[in-house]
Amino acid sequence: MPGIPTRPGTLMIGRESLDRLRTAGMTMLSLGLFIQLSGLLLNNDDSRYATQINLLLFLPALLLLLSEKIDWPLWRQPCAWLLAALLGWVLLRGTLGADSDKPAHYWLKIGLFILLYVFSIHRLLLAGSFRKPLLAAVIVSALVAWLTLFYQFGVLDKPFSYSALRTYGRLSELGWGGFADLSHPIIAGLYFGLFTLLLLGLIVEFEPRWPALILAYAGLAGLVLYVLLTFSRGAWFATLAGGLVLLLLSPKPRARQLLGLGILILLAMLLIFQTELQSELRQGTSQRGPIWHNWFDRLPEFWLYGDGAGKPLVYTYPWGDTVYHAHSLYLQLWYEYGVIGAALFAALLCTLLFKGWQLRRQPEARIGLAALVFALVAMVSDIYALFHRPSPYWVIVWLPIGFLIALRRSPDQFAS
C-alpha cells in the first residue's frame, strides 16, 4: 500500500513492485482471517485447517511485519506491554520449567502466532479491510446454523423435545461429512454465541436497511436458536452478558428497540419454559464443584509459579470418571503459570476493558468491548486453554483481545 514506510534495505525492489506485493499480502491476510474464523465450519480436517491458516494468515503477516517499520503506537500501549509480558512468562515457564508439557520451541511458536494474529488484525483495521472478512464469517456462521437446524431436525429427524435434546441431542455438529463439527456442545455454543453477538453488533451499529435487515434478523434468529439448543449455559450467559453490554452502550435507536424486545422475549420464555428452567437449575454446576474444590485443596502446591506450562489438572471423581482441566480458564491458567501468569492475564483484561470504555464512542469499540465481556463470562466455566494452536478458543478469546489491542482512536476523538 502506498505511503507505508519500510525498513531501509529490507527489500531491494522498486516501489511499484513493493506496493503490488503489499496489496497481495493484504488480500491474503483478509482471506486468512476469514479462514481462521470460518474454517472450523468449512473444513472437516484439522490439519488442513492449520495449514490454511499458516499459509494464508501467519506467513503473509510475518512478511509484512518484516518488510515494514515497527508501528510503535501499536506496541507502546499498556495492553500490548502486558500481552508481551504474559507471552514472555509463558515462554519462560515453558522453556525453563522441567515440568512443562511441551518443548521450548512449541511455546515460542505459539507466542509468535499470537503476536502475528494481533498484527494481522491491526494491519487489516489500518487498511480498512477488517470488516469484509468478519462480515463474510458472520454470514457463513448464520448459514451453517440454519443448515444444521434443517439437517438435524428435517433430514435426520432428531426429536425436538426438551428431554431428548437435553439427554443426547445437544447440537455440536452439522451431522454430514464431518463439516461444522465442533466436537462438543459447549464449544459449539460459545463459537456460535460469539457470532450471534457480532451479528447483533453489525445490525445495531451499522444499521443495515431493507432487505438486508430482514436477512440479518433471519441469520440472528438461526444463531440464537442454535446456541439455545447446545444447552451450554455458559454460552447462554456469555451471549446474554455481551448483548446487554452492546445494547446498553450503543446510542442507536435500534439498540433501545432490540433491548426492549429482548426483555419481553426473555420474560415470555421464563413463563413458558418454567419446567425446563427448573430442570436446568437442578443441573447446578454440572459437577464442576468437586473439580474446583480439588483446585483449592492443591493451591499451596502451585500458587506462585504454577505446576507447568500446558500441564493438565487431573481430577478423578469418586465414581471413576476423570477430567483433565479445571473447567475454568482463570483457575487453569493459575494452575499452569502460577499467580504471576494469572496476574498478568488479569491486568491485560483490565487494560483492555479500560481501553474499550475509553473508545466507547466508536461503534467498533462497542462491539469489541461486548465481545470481550462475552469472553470474560465464557472463561469462568467453559474454556480451558489459550496458549495452543488456533482453535475455536482463538475465535472466542484472542479475536476480542487482538481487536481491542489493534483498535485506535478515531480522528474525531483526537480532536475532542
TrEMBL record:
Residues 220-346 form the O-antigen ligase-related domain. InterPro entries: O-antigen_ligase-rel_domated (IPR007016), WaaL-like (IPR051533). Pfam families: Wzy_C. It is a multi-pass membrane protein. One of its GO terms (cellular component) is membrane. Keywords: Ligase, Membrane, Transmembrane, Transmembrane helix. GO terms for molecular function: ligase activity. It is found in: Membrane. The chain crosses the membrane at residues 21-43, 49-67, 79-98, 104-122, 134-153, 182-203, 210-229, 235-251, 258-275, 334-354, 366-387, 393-410. PANTHER family: LIPOPOLYSACCHARIDE BIOSYNTHESIS PROTEIN PA4999-RELATED, TEICHURONIC ACID BIOSYNTHESIS PROTEIN TUAE. This is O-antigen ligase family protein. It comes from Aquipseudomonas alcaligenes. The lineage of its organism: Bacteria, Pseudomonadati, Pseudomonadota, Gammaproteobacteria, Pseudomonadales.
